[in-house]
Amino acid sequence: MSLIKxxxxxxxxxxxxxxxxxxxxxxxxSKEYYDKYFKIKNNNCLTCGKETKFSDINRGYRKFCSxxxxxxxxxxxxxxxxxxxxxxxxxxxxxxxxIKEKINNTKKLKSKENPNYLKNIRLKRTENILKKRLPVIxxxxxxxxxxxxxxxxxxQEDIKVRCLKCxxxxxxxxxxxxxxxxxxxxxxxYIYNCSKVEKELIKFLKSLDLIFTEKDRNILNGKELDxxxxxxxxxxxFDGLYWHSELFKxxxxxxxxxxxxxxxxxxxxxxxxxxxVFKQDIVKSRLKQILGINNSERxxxxxxxxxxxxxxxxxxxxxxxxIQGEDRSLIxxxxxxxxxxxxxxxxxxxxxxxxxxxxFCSNDNYHIPGIAGKLLLYFKNNYQxxxxxxxxxxxxxxxxxxxxxxxxxxxxxxxxxxxIKRLDRINRFNLGKRLKKGYHKIxxxxxxxxxxxNREELNKYD
Length: 462
What we know:
Elements: E1 4-5, E2 12-13, H1 16-22, H2 30-37, E3 54-56, E4 60-61, H3 67-72, H4 74-88, H5 97-109, H6 117-143, E5 146-148, E6 158-163, E7 169-173, H7 174-178, H8 196-207, E8 213-220, E9 223-229, E10 234-239, H9 253-263, E11 267-272, H10 273-278, H11 280-290, E12 297-298, E13 305-308, H12 311-321, E14 331-337, E15 340-349, E16 354-362, E17 366-367, H13 371-382, E18 387-393, H14 400-404, E19 408-412, E20 417-421, E21 424-427, E22 440-443, E23 447-453, H15 455-459
């Protein structure tokens, strides 16, 4: 099999998907790469002449701008006529007797004389789907030691199941089992209204020798706080994605709780379930930082060197130490101690010398006081800028670090939401309209927007 060569660095790949992913390291999109090295002619629709969308590196731009143009094209019409000629011996389907008869029969079935026709079609379709799905559902239940003993209609319908471990018969729902809820009440008792992953968080906090209360209902006058640490004036909420989605919680639920805690001088931290499951080490490190528990090695600011780093090193570091993971940024700064990368700060350019501070994080094995300010100062001294802005998630922070390094609070954003399905939490911009079926929204607490304005640069134009 012939390999595909990257025309920027010369590296070879087995397929175009691998090449497309590799192009991120060069900060270039697949479309930009194709336009630069392969594009020969204009990407105009063969039917109407409008610009068409980019498909991929292998196929380039689409031939047509829409399905309508594709159907109206001479090429499609010729293909259709050839197919009709091969199958039915006539280019025009309306002149084929068997097709005519089929159309007439369908019209009769859909007539007023047969009102249940469409209903029967839907029932038949549902039966066929169930025939295919039932073996898969039975296999899934068997893997979690359950056996279905009643009829199955759909995921939200009650089903009667038998536990293969202890023989208990109980009623549950398929969709609950998909989210790892609703298991055998004998084998998996739901103790103290606390999920398995929430118990892991409690176990971690106990390992830090903290005194805290669980399921506190006194502070917020009846509203429950999962964990409250009086000595730190900090509360923690563990937000299961399904149970904290729009199905059970309203849009302002998380924000209202956060603001009620702030009114009592308590910082409330919201941990989403997927963050604990997939990025537990980062969450633990961040909690220790917020709680002021620091056992890491201290490094003084004079002992490290700041320099620019490449995208690969930056992304590896961010995926390891930042809860949001890698980003696409123009400026990538790193602080090194004995040739080991300690901290990373990234900035992306907007317009007119306005920059966004996208990411900042440090190696959690080290405590480096003042490193954020030093990295920002390096940027200020080496780049022309008029304004720097950044956001902090109200679920996690009040933005104390930004105040320390010279930022001012500019505004508070509107509430943001993600689409969730099981443990997948997807950015609302990354899910097409057609794919939203089966997904539910989960809302956050909004963001604080901070900014710094370069007064010296602005005074030049006064």
